Each structure stands twice: as structure tokens, then as C-alpha cells.
TrEMBL record:
Gene3D superfamilies: Cytochrome P450 (1.10.630.10). GO terms for molecular function: heme binding; iron ion binding; oxidoreductase activity, acting on paired donors, with incorporation or reduction of molecular oxygen, reduced flavin or flavoprotein as one donor, and incorporation of one atom of oxygen. InterPro entries: Cyt_P450, Cyt_P450_CS, Cyt_P450_E_CYP52_ascomycetes, Cyt_P450_E_CYP52_fungi, Cyt_P450_E_grp-II, Cyt_P450_sf. Transmembrane segments: none annotated. CDD domains: CYP52. This is Cytochrome P450. The lineage of its organism: Eukaryota, Fungi, Dikarya, Ascomycota, Pezizomycotina. It comes from Stachybotrys elegans. One of its GO terms (cellular component) is membrane. PANTHER family: P450, PUTATIVE (EUROFUNG)-RELATED. Heme binds at C408.
Length: 473
């Protein structure tokens, strides 16, 4: 501490500093009310951008300083593995071998196996996305009746991701089987519950939860059946299929199942999360929709999007950047120090001095809050204003896909899927309107979601753009 001129960081004003039960109970109440992220955001203003809190006897650091996030994810990467409760959550919900819950050599092997799925020629092949896009558009009413768009977005990303990664789609948009519906419900419940148990602290893992155990079992049973069906179909035509590659590698059944669950989480939940919040906002921002449609009409007309046209649509890309700033799908994250370390900011009266973090301490950073800092994004930081990206240049204060060695390997696929869907929707529909006057609420699990849904109505264009028909793979 003396060598690095460290200063102490402030602490949460506990009424129970010995055990921190007050902090844990408040966190649970905020989670019940879907106010966790807003509470975290307020604490950074009230207590400090970096501060300590006690969660059931365990002191952890929390920060929304870009320099600290850079240290944890990049410059001090080896000192901050996934561990402690985050690791136990991963083992519970995804399995012990999933890429999101492993470290070291096992994590490197999983990443190397997944990487070929995301090479340029794989992502730029829009045949897969267009099939499910047609199914998605066919489900949207054009008579002005209201619909919860969030449900369909999760179905679209599920169908597209499973088709792209495994060569065999779940087809939830076309004809969802009872087993698929049960899996989706169980998968959503197990991820949300396991994540909340991790935040609540070690005590939660000693409390029995039969419903959670049943949900995890149903997820594994579905994946087992899904793998059998997909492999029985024979090898798909795609040049690279993640699941086939794993099977050919000689990996165990359990290992393959864990990676499939992780890839469904990464491909389905994250993209649908951001798109749901974006369309919720677009339904209340006709000015943005008008500019989007003008660019889409100019660049695409009635033609289907291509890799090149999507890259050249500057306003569409600014809209997506702004959506990922305000609603990063993984809004909060956690690491645990495996040795004594020093983070560059957080200590002293002004929070600008280095802060010492003892071995075994956890550190949480809240991307959702960091992306809303007015000193980083101006006074209108909490407003949806895509035009800010005309001049804004960012570094570690903008990390919707994380950063460092564990940066999201599928970020280009997610970006392509989002831009393709937005472009096709506004080729087909000229307007979107809100059908719910409630404020946006954010439910925090592993990813974020809208607990009240995304209720909208859509008005179609005079002539159908880029005609397509329902395709079942």
C-alpha cells in the first residue's frame, strides 16, 4: 500500500457492519422490485464510484471506474479469475465445463473450439438469419393490434442461434414443441434464480430450492434430446457447425452439453435483451424511427441487407451503439482477486488514488451505471440520443461486450443479427407505437429483461418489402 500510495476507499453506510445483513436485505428487496440497477447507480453517486460493502460477512469492492474495469479485464487479467459465487452460479446453471464458468486452460480450450464459428464468412452468410427473419415477420400483426415483441425476439434469437451454431433450429417461431417451451421456461428460471442466489451471498447456497434443481434437470434433459435429434439428422451443409466439431473432437457428452447451454445463453438472451429495450424505446421515439427508415429506404430499398450495406448504414449503427450503451445485456459482472492487488482508482477523499484489494476479495462493476456517468457521456447521459456517436470516441468507459482476453467472442454475430433484424423490420413496417404507458422496468438476472414486456403495435408499409415466406428448417 505504501509503495503504490494507496488510500482507503469509502464503505457503504452499514447499520450492521459486522455481518452486512442490512446490505443483503436491501439488495433482495430491490431485486424483488426490479430496482437493483437503479440502486447500484445511486450508490455510486452517494457513496463513491468505488466503495466497499459487506455481504453476509464478506467484504467486496464495487466500482464503475473505467480504469479499474480495464485492470480487471485486461492489465491484471491473470489476477482476477471467475471464482467464488460467480463460479458456483455457473456450475449450477450451466455446468462445470461451460466457457462462462471456467478459467485457465479449460477456458482457453473452449474458446479455441468456439472461435471458428465466428469467422467472417460464417457471419456474413445471411441465409440462416433470413429464414428465421421471415418466420419472425410472419408473426407480427399488421392490423394495428398489440403484441409483446419481447417474447418473439427471444424466439427469433433462440431459433437463429441454434441454427447458426448447431445446424439444427429449435423452430420456436414456427411450431414450438411442448419440450421446447418447457426448456425455455426452465432455462430462464434457472439462470435468473442462480444469479440472484449468487448476489445474495453464500447463505443462499445452503437453502434448498427444489424448483431450481428441477429446472436445471429439465434444461439438461432437453439439450440431451436436442443433441440426439440434431446428430440423427446427419451433418448440415454449413462448412462449420460447432456441435459437430465438438463431437468429432471426442469431447464428453457432459462437456458438449455444458457448451451448448452456454452458447444458447450467449446467442439468445444477450441479443434479445438489448433488442427488447431498443424497440420499447423506438415505440416512443418516432423521430428516430423516421431517420432509421429514411436510411434503410435509401440504402436497401426492397433488397435484402448484405454485409456491406449494413456496415455502411451509419445511423443504424449509431442507434445500436446507443442501445448497447444504455442497455448492455450483461449489466453487472464480478471477479475475485487470487492475490493481493492494487486497482488504479477509488482511494482517498476524491476517489482518484490507488486502492488496495486483499487476496480473496471480490469486485463487482456495473456496466449499466458506468455507461450512464454524466462526466463521461455529458449531462444527457441517461437519454437515448444516437447522434452522440457522430463525435463520441470511447475506450474502457464503453464495454457492452466486455473487454480483454475474455471479450465476447460472438460480438460481431450479435451485432449482425441486431442490425439485420432492425433493418428488415423497418423495411416491412413504417411505424411502431407503444401500447403500454408504464415506465421501463429492468429485471436483472444473468442478462437483463423487461418484466412488463415490450407491448407495441406496428403499421405496415404500402407494399411488402423483400417478400419472404415462412421457412421451417
Amino acid at each position: 500500500m505504501r509503495i503504490h500510495n494507496c488510500q482507503p476507499a469509502p464503505s457503504y453506510p452499514h447499520s450492521d457492519p459486522l455481518l452486512g445483513i442490512d446490505w443483503t436485505m436491501t439488495l433482495m428487496r430491490k431485486a424483488q422490485a426490479n430496482e437493483t440497477l437503479q440502486w447500484f447507480h445511486g450508490l455510486y453517486t452517494e457513496v463513491g464510484n468505488t466503495h466497499w460493502n459487506n455481504n453476509l460477512g464478506t467484504w467486496n469492492l464495487t466500482t464503475n471506474e473505467p480504469e479499474n474495469v480495464k485492470a480487471i479485464l485486461a492489465t491484471q487479467f491473470e489476477s482476477w479469475p471467475i471464482a467464488s459465487l460467480r463460479l458456483r452460479f455457473g456450475l449450477l446453471a450451466l455446468g462445470p465445463h461451460a466457457i462462462f464458468s471456467t478459467n485457465g486452460h479449460e477456458w482457453q480450450e473452449a474458446r479455441a473450439m468456439i472461435r471458428p464459428s465466428f469467422v467472417r464468412n460464417q457471419i456474413a452468410d445471411f441465409e440462416c438469419i433470413e429464414k428465421h427473419m421471415c418466420n419472425f415477420l410472419a408473426r407480427l400483426p399488421s392490423d394495428g393490434s398489440k403484441i409483446d415483441l419481447q417474447d418473439l425476439l427471444y424466439d427469433f434469437t433462440m431459433d437463429t442461434s441454434t441454427d447458426f451454431m448447431f445446424g439444427y433450429s429449435t423452430n420456436t417461431l414456427v411450431k414450438p414443441s411442448p419440450e421446447a417451451l418447457e426448456f425455455i421456461e426452465s432455462f430462464t428460471y434457472s439462470l435468473f434464480t442462480a444469479a440472484n442466489r449468487g448476489r445474495a451471498g453464500w447463505v443462499a447456497f445452503w437453502l434448498p430450492n427444489k424448483k431450481l434443481n428441477d429446472a436445471v434437470w429439465k434444461c439438461k434433459r432437453f439439450i440431451d434430446h436436442y443433441m440426439e435429434e440434431a446428430l440423427a439428422e446427419g451433418k448440415p451443409k454449413a462448412s462449420y457447425v460447432f456441435m459437430n466439431q465438438m463431437v468429432e473432437s471426442g469431447a464428453s457428452h457432459e462437456y458438449i452439453r455444458d457448451q451448448l447451454l452456454a452458447m444458447i445463453l450467449g446467442g439468445r438472451d444477450t441479443t434479445a435483451s438489448t433488442l427488447s429495450a431498443l424497440f420499447w424505446t423506438l415505440a416512443r421515439r418516432p423521430d428516430v424511427v423516421e431517420k432509421l427508415r429514411a436510411e434503410i429506404t435509401k440504402e436497401l430499398g426492397d433488397e435484402a441487407p448484405t454485409w456491406e450495406t449494413l456496415k455502411n448504414m451509419s445511423y443504424l449503427n449509431m442507434v445500436l451503439k446507443e442501445a448497447l450503451r444504455l442497455w448492455p445485456p450483461v449489466a453487472s459482472n464480478f471477479r475475485c482477486a487470487n492475490k493481493d492487488v492494487v486497482l488504479p482508482k477509488g482511494g482517498g477523499p476524491d476517489g482518484q488514488s490507488p486502492v488496495f484489494v486483499p487476496k480473496g476479495s471480490g469486485c463487482r462493476w456495473v456496466t449499466w451505471s458506468m455507461h450512464r456517468r454524466k462526466d463521461l457521456y455529458e449531462e444527457d447521459a441517461e437519454e437515448f440520443r444516437p447522434e452522440r456517436w457522430e463525435t463520441l470516441r470511447t475506450s474502457w468507459e464503453y464495454v457492452p461486450f466486455s473487454g480483454g482476453p475474455r471479450i465476447c467472442i460472438g460480438q460481431q454475430f450479435a451485432w449482425t443479427m441486431m442490425s439485420y433484424l432492425v433493418a428488415r423490420v423497418f423495411q416491412t413496417f413504417r411505424a411502431i407505437e407503444a401500447r403500454d404507458d408504464r415506465e421501463m422496468a429492468i429485471k436483472l438476472g444473468v442478462t437483463t429483461s423487461l418484466p412488463n414486456g415490450c407491448w407495441v403495435s406496428l403499421a405496415s408499409v404500402t407494399t411488402e418489402a423483400t417478400p419472404c415466406h415462412v421457412v421451417q428448417t
